[in-house]
Structure formats: structure tokens, C-alpha cells
Amino acid sequence: MLRTLAIHDFVIVDKIELEFVPGFTVFTGETGAGKSILIDALTLALGGRGDASMVREGAAKTDICAEFLAPPQARAWLQEHELAQEEEGADVIMMRRVIDNAGRSKAFINGISATVAQLRELGEFLVDIHGQHMHQSLLKLDAHRGLLDNQLDSNAQELAQKVASSYKSWQVLARQLAEFEANAKNVLQERERLQWQVGELEKLAPKAGEWAEVSQEHSRLSHAASLIDGAQQALHLISEAEQPMLSQLSSLNQRLAKLVDVDPQLQQVLECTEPARIQLQEAVYALNDYLGRVELDPQRLQEVEARLDALHSAARKFRVAPEDLPQEYEQLSNQLKQILDVSDIDALRAQVEKLKAAYLQEAQKLSKIRHQAAQALALAVTQAMQDLSMSGGKFDIAFNPCEPSSHGIEQVEFLVAGHAGVALRPLAKVASGGELARIALAISVITSSAASTPTLIFDEVDSGIGGGVAEVVGRLLKRLGQDRQVLCVTHLPQVASQANAHLQVAKAASENGKTISSIHVL
Fold first, then answer.
1. How far apart are CA 172 and CA 166, in angstroms?
2. Is 288 helix (H, G, I), strand (E, B) or coil?
3. 65-112: per-residue pLDDT in tens?
4. Looking at the domain 1-126+502-514, which fold is it?
5. For residue 183, what is the enclosing H or E element?
6. Contacts 24+ apart (CB under 8 A), 372-375
7. Does the reported pTM lie above 0.85?
8. Distance separating alpha carbons of residues 5 and 40, to the nearest angstrom
């Protein structure tokens, strides 16, 4: 339920703060006073479209804040989106919208920054607005299906969502099948090309890091003779020559050791040369170990050269660097797997037919439920039409087969007869504007009574009627207000007299000559 509405600098409204009560509340006032502006302001707080033109002339921004008592579905939504209040005031929802004179918009839920889409989504749990041009929207067939589906219980509405999901799955795969059939020749050629490429690389079996390893081994094998000769010469100079470096360094260290006994200042020289002797000795061990392992191996060199040639040739063929061959192999293998997964056209057709059958089964089940709901809705709207002085009038719902869609397998169409003895005709062909207004009101009242939304708003839906019919409209709206909150903008005293609360909207000139709206409780 809407508890309060605070409006600041909106169109011709300077500042209005309203408190609302349960039941039936009306807004009245002369034409142009701003009755519907209040509804427009609330719509903005609920995520409606807004721009800089809504900011009152001379003001920096418009600020709309609406406070609601939260129904269970809204509380669950708030918890899911982490926008719920703390323990204190947890049953209250604050929805706020700010638009500055540059058109920039900000949205808040319970003081937390939110998106306009979130305002709109949450607002669907709180308010249902029926506008003064509602009868025009009823001329569209999609609106007929939507109103009927709103009468379905939660299980049936879940089925409607499932039908939409099944249709989407079916159509996605059907498009894939159509594309495959149109490009079957190209797909076959692509599959053959990939199979050949993957086969070539599968025989080669390149491994990650192999190119670097084989190149290094080739360099070592191809220079084995010079490596052995060089290592032997180094070993000879260090330890095997007539005056080997190691022997000379050992003699040097012995002499330095004797000199240190005479002058300790030479100790630092000995500390430099002794590690050098140790390092040379380690070099001797390392060279002997290396020479024990390195050998001339022409056969292995030939094998390595053949492997390098194979890798290099494949790299040229596939136009990649030799070290990238393993990645190319993996990528081509994945492409082949994907094309093989969908290349069985018979299996694809079978899957499409399976999804189509599942969709049709669910759509037929939904159709049966819709037919049952249509009977109850037709009786209720017929009764409401007769209450609105359309004696002998009748309302019915036709189901016309159509191409399968996300909404099902039939088109819903409202049929009406304004008087007894008149044949049922499509609602869009009702000639009288007055009749259309009353029928639209009857549909609106009946469909709203089945909805779970706690607040219903009727914005001049009684236009085009008067006299005794207007009094009946007032009674219908008051009856709706017995178990929910009903707000109605009206110009009819017969409707206003039925309300539990009456707010009068007036306009006047301010001190600076600008027109502003004000509101008074009657």
C-alpha cells in the first residue's frame, strides 16, 4: 500500500507531501489543475521515463519519494537484491527518483543507490496503473492475451514462462538446422579440410617446448667435435701442461703463506688467490665429467635434424612459428570436434523435432488452462458491463489458431456485443466511444480484482460516461477498495461521492506569476 508521496519541483508542483489511507481515494479538480501530474510523479518514482522537462521551471532538480508498505513478494525481491531495510522499518519501502535540469537521473531504494530498471521491477509488485487511454491499448490483440494471462494462477503463469523458454530453445536449434542445411556443402568441405589438417599434426605429434629442446640438442650434437676439443684444451691448460695453471697457482699460494708469516698484511692477497685455486680445481672436476658424457653421435644427430626438418616444414605449411605447432594442433582439433558435433544432420533434425514436440505439448496444456480462465473472465466482465447500463451486453473471448510463438499456439481476442440481439464482434470494431470506455472500465475492474497488486490506480478511466453509469462506476471502485488500496483521478461527482478519502487539486499563480498546483484534503 502507498503510505506517503512527497513531490518537489515537478512540472507545476512546487512542494506537496501526501499521506494515503487504505480503501478508495479520489483526486478531483478542474481541467489542467494537475490531477494526472500526481500520477505521473508516482510513475516516475516507480521507474517511468523522465527527462529535464519534468523539472519545474527555475528549479535545479525534481525529487519524488514514495513510501509503501511492503507485500511479501516485494520483501523477497528486496532480500534477493540486497536492498532490504534493517530490522526496524523492514516492512516499509522507500522509492526515490531525482532528475536534474540537465536530464541526469538518480534512483534509490531504501536510501541505497539503484537502477531505474530496479525501480520498475520492484514497482510491479506494488502498483498497477490503469490510464485514461486504456481503451486504446485494448484495441491491440497482445493486450488481450496479457490481461487473460494475468488471471492465471502462479502455476499456470510458470507454465506460460516455460512455453516461452521451450519456444526459444526450439527456434535456436531450428535456425542452426536451417543454416546447416543451407551451408551443408561448405560445412562438408570445412570438415574434410580440418580432418586432413588434424591428421597431419596428429602424425607429427608436436609437444609444448619441443622446438626449443630439439634445437638445443641439435646445436650440441652438431658441434660435438669442437666442444670435445675445446674442453680437452681447457683441461690441459689447467692441469696437464708443463706448467699448468693449477700448479702455478698452488705454488703462488705456498709462497704467499710464507710471506704472511713475515707480514700479516699480505693475508688479504692470499684470501683472494686461494679461492681461485679452489675454483680451478672444481673446473677440472667439471671438465672431466663433461668429457665423460659428451660423445660424437652421428646417428642421433641425423634423427634430430630429421625432427627439426619435419617441425619446420609443418610450420611453413600451417603458417605458424615452429614453437606454436602444439597450440595450432589443439585449436584445429577443437574446431573439428565442434563441427563433428553438429554435422550429423539427421541427429540435428531429430533434436529439433523433439524440442518442437515438447513445446507443443506445453503450449496445448497452456491453451486448455487459458480456455478455462476465459470462461470465468467472460462471465465476470459480462456482469460488469450490465452493471454499467449495457443491458443485454455480452463479453466473450475467442481463440484463433496462429503460428507457434513464445506466447503459445493461439491468438486471444476479446469479443463484445453492446446490446441484446447484437452479434459478438471484435472489440476493435466497437463503433461507439462511450461503449468502448465502459467495456474497458469493466475489463479493468474485473482483471484488477484478480490481481495481487496492493495498490490500484485509475487515471480518468471514467471519461466518456456520466449519469447513473458514473454512480455504478463509483460503487465498483469502492468495492475494489474493500480489500486493497484504490486511487482514482476523476472529474465525476458521482464517482467522488463514493470515496473513503477525497483530495482536491487546484492551480493558482504564485508571487512571481508562475502557475503552481496545490492539494487539499476534503
1. 10
2. helix
3. 999 998 888 888 888 888 887 665 568 899 999 999 999 999 999 999
4. Rossmann fold (3.40.50)
5. none
6. 373/148, 373/151, 373/152, 373/156, 374/148, 374/399, 374/412
7. no
8. 12
Give the burial class of 91: count Cβ atoms within 10 A of its Cβ; 0-12 exposed, 13-18 middle, 19 or more buried: exposed
What's the CA gap between 203 and 196, in Å, rounded?
11
Radius of gyration over alpha carbons of the chain, in Å?
Answer: 44
Query: How is the chain split into domains, by residue range?
Result: 1-126+502-514
Going from the C-alpha of 478 to that of each of 20, 389, 462, 501, the distances in angstroms are 15, 18, 14, 11
Question: How far apart are the C-alpha atoms of 51 and 37, rounded to whole Å?
Answer: 14
User: From the centroid of its chain, how far is CA 487?
Assistant: 34
Collapsing DSSP to helix, strand or coil, 123 comes out as helix
Three-state SS at 512? coil
Residue type, 82: E
Backbone angles phi, psi at 154, to 5 degrees: -60, -35
Q: Can you state the angle between helices 224-235 and 267-293, rounded to 10 degrees?
A: 140
Are the C-beta atoms of 28 and 491 separated by less than 8 Å?
Answer: yes
Q: Which residue has the higher pLDDT, 377 or 419?
A: 377
**Gap between the Cα atoms of 427 and 413, Å rounded:** 8
d(CA 313, CA 32): 85
What element of type H or E holds 338? Answer: helix 325-342
